[in-house]
Design brief:
Elements lengths: L4 E3 L5 E7 L8 E7 L8 E2 L12 E4 L5 E4 L6 E4 L8 E5 L5 E5 L6 E5 L15 E2 L6 E2 L1 E2 L13 E7 L4 E7 L2
Antiparallel strand pairs: 1-2, 2-3, 3-4, 5-6, 6-7, 8-9, 9-10, 11-12, 13-14, 14-15
């Protein structure tokens, strides 16, 4: 995938490797962006671990593990299979969600999805809040600047549930 992209069936979204930042930056990220705006991907897989060159490859190995492989560094694992799923597929859905599915299960079980790991943009179908079963928190974190997705910026948007209702919070680092 280092020189290719994956396009959603409706043609609105593209996933692939992209450079973010100034022209001098060699930082490369696996991202998803709108087809008509490649300047700011709305999701970055390796936001905290940019690749310093263009050698990145997204791989699904024989055990069903999904990882980012690149020269000169340890693989970045996104999904580690807990079962013996043998017919795993990856798809970029029309919603912009990159999904890893087990095609052998009758219901095409979702094993991993990018919407569970939002970065700075909220799209329809994404979640904010806490998964009380797993403890996972879904929140949005701003970029440091238009040219720097990492480290995260000063703004975090999250949702917390209370017995009386829902409270949304915008946290600003000082």
């Amino acid at each position: 995938m280092s020189s290719s992209t994956l396009v959603s069936k409706n043609g609105l979204f593209t996933s692939g490797f992209t450079r973010v930042g100034s022209a001098e930056s060699n930082a490369s990220y696996l991202g998803i962006w709108y087809n008509n705006d490649t300047s700011h991907p709305f999701w970055l897989a390796n936001r905290d671990k940019p690749i310093s060159d263009t050698s990145g490859v997204l791989a699904i190995d024989g055990s069903g593990n999904m990882k980012l492989i690149y020269s000169g560094g340890d693989p970045v694992e996104f999904y580690s299979s807990q079962s013996s799923a043998t017919n795993i597929t990856a798809i970029l859905e029309d919603s912009g969600n990159f999904v890893l599915k087990d095609e052998n299960s009758g219901s095409q079980q979702v094993l991993w999805q990018s919407f569970d790991f939002p970065t700075d943009t909220f799209l329809p179908g994404m979640k904010l809040g806490i998964n009380h079963r797993t403890g996972q928190t879904w929140s949005l974190m701003s970029w440091l600047s238009d040219l720097a997705p990492t480290p995260p910026g000063a703004f975090t948007f999250s949702q917390r549930n209370f017995s009386i209702g829902i409270r949304c919070a915008l946290n600003i680092k000082r």
